[in-house]
Amino acid sequence: MQFSEAINRISVSPTFAVVQKAAKLKARGIDVVDFGAGEPDFPTPENIKQAAIRAVEQNFTKYTPTGGIAELKQAIVERHAKDFGSSYKPEECLVTVGGKQAIFEAVAAVINPGDEVILPAPYWVSFLDIVNYAGGRVVTLETREDEGFALRAEAVEKLVTPKTRILVVNSPNNPTGAVVPPEEMQKLLALAERRNFLLMSDECYCHFLYEGRKPFSLGASKNRENLLIVGSLSKTYSMTGWRVGYALGASSLLDAMLKLQSHSTSNPTSIAQKAAVEALRGPQESVQTMLAEYARRREKIVAGLRSIPGIECVNPEGAFYVYPNVGGALEKAGMEDATAFAERLLEEVHVALVPGPAFGTREHVRISYATSQEQIDEGLRRLKQFVSQLRPAYAQAR
Ligand SMILES: Cc1ncc(COP(=O)(O)O)c(C=O)c1O
Asked: Which residues line ligand 1 (CB under 6 A)?
């Protein structure tokens, strides 16, 4: 069968590909240390699960309004106001099937073929493929590792053209964990206003910040025309499988996104919406408990990685990923890029991680530390062993 040009422009998410490969090995009884998955290893908190069970028992199991139930929209804007000082109205909120659907719909609603989207690299791979699918042109902005992958408005401005329609900002960032400071965020929004493009701010990791950094959202600004906030309950409440996300922004843009939703998924799952109301309105302690555990794991993994010759590691400021540079190890073994490194690592010592080329850089790997401290210890031990045994390519050939 012949497939569309649009579908041929994209590929399956490399993150899923790694997860699948690791799952295959596990199914063969192999003990894999899995640093691949971008999801919390904690169960969904009990109060949230109970809300879903109640929804089923009360037969809340039918179609809901396409853009989400009124109660959930209200809960989202109230939570956002409480956490970040924003003032969105429920009609400025769209509930989606995960944050990913909000991003997909926003790009589809705004981008014509040839329009430009500025995407800071390293980037979460779905941004790239979603824009490619829509026929947009991705303009990547390389952030610098020696600056902690910092995103600067000055650098963005140099890439803005009359065709720029969207700037993607993802802070804390997947895969680097880099956080854009509030002052820089304001500069980016001012630039979006001045040059009239949409700043799409993906806040999916907004509660996972370390060393006393305070959660921040541009949503507290009054701007509605140039800003779209994309949020998700997936990571904050360990609800990845429930598929609840949202967008906050101008109601005209949300209406355009809703059209697409009405012809694709319709509403987010009714039961999951009730669970989401409880997540947002119920006790918030579980978020702090998870954050405290991530903070411990982060220290362990950064220290462990830095102790391995051939690996360098920027301290991530948020999210639950580290993005070490394995360039020294690649050079030592004559490996072409981090994809080759990741493949050999999985085959030889059974450690799964996602290679950097998926995120737009050649020499890095993404490690998710949303896994137990025991797994982190074991993974570091295997990684160290793997790197120490690497030999120059010519030595292997002999
Ligand atoms: C940066 C970023 N944005 C959005 C998402 C989407 O999450 P979900 O669709 O589960 O809400 C993810 C998931 O990994 C992500 O890493």
From this structure: 38, 98-100, 124, 170, 174, 202, 204, 232, 234, 240, 245
